[in-house]
Specification:
The complex is a heterodimer of chains A (114) and B (113). Chain A has 114 residues and is mainly β. Helices cover 0% and strands 52% of the residues of chain A. The chains are: A mainly beta (114), B mainly beta (113). The interface between A and B is medium-sized, with 25 and 27 residues.
Chain lengths: 114, 113
Amino acid sequence: AQSVAQPEDQVNVAEGNPLTVKCTYSVSGNPYLFWYVQYPNRGLQFLLKYITGDNLVKGSYGFEAEFNKSQTSFHLKKPSALVSDSALYFCAVSSSGSARQLTFGSGTQLTVLP
Amino acid sequence: NAGVTQTPKFRVLKTGQSMTLLCAQDMNHEYMYWYRQDPGMGLRLIHYSVGEGTTAKGEVPDGYNVSRLKKQNFLLGLESAAPSQTSVYFCASRPQIYQETQYFGPGTRLLVL
């Protein structure tokens, strides 16, 4: 069975500071890893994914994530946070089967303080 | 393209009532999924479909049924609603087998009294 852990329910950071949202995973075989963002009363928006290749993945809105196979982690990062980055962030892992069922973490609420 | 749309946006049901949630996508995607989102639990997969006419159970299928009679539509049914089914329901679609990203609809908020 596959699983995702987001150890922090809430992350607060000052505007302009770097941010990190943590994610660890467990899956059989090669992982397909994703980050999604959810703004209030909205659906999930895709940020970035790791399928294969370079361990540093760049995505939308200046976000990036680093895949670390030995630590089974896929942390989301941004060099300089904006107030508009405040949202709920979900990490997800996909199965290797053709259906690519996503298993989500419980989410991390990011608040960027002005 | 409208992308993934969901109908209705919000609904209140009484215990024991039935209803159907509609998901539609205009991107010709093969795969479609239904999730529910509950506080502190992320999203959990209810049912999914790998193509027109197919359905399969996800992590939390009990109390729900689905149908995919047309490629662009994926219906989620509650035959006899229970308060435990109070949740926000999201539909998602994915193009084909080697394209990994799922695209989500705006959600349906369901309250069962």
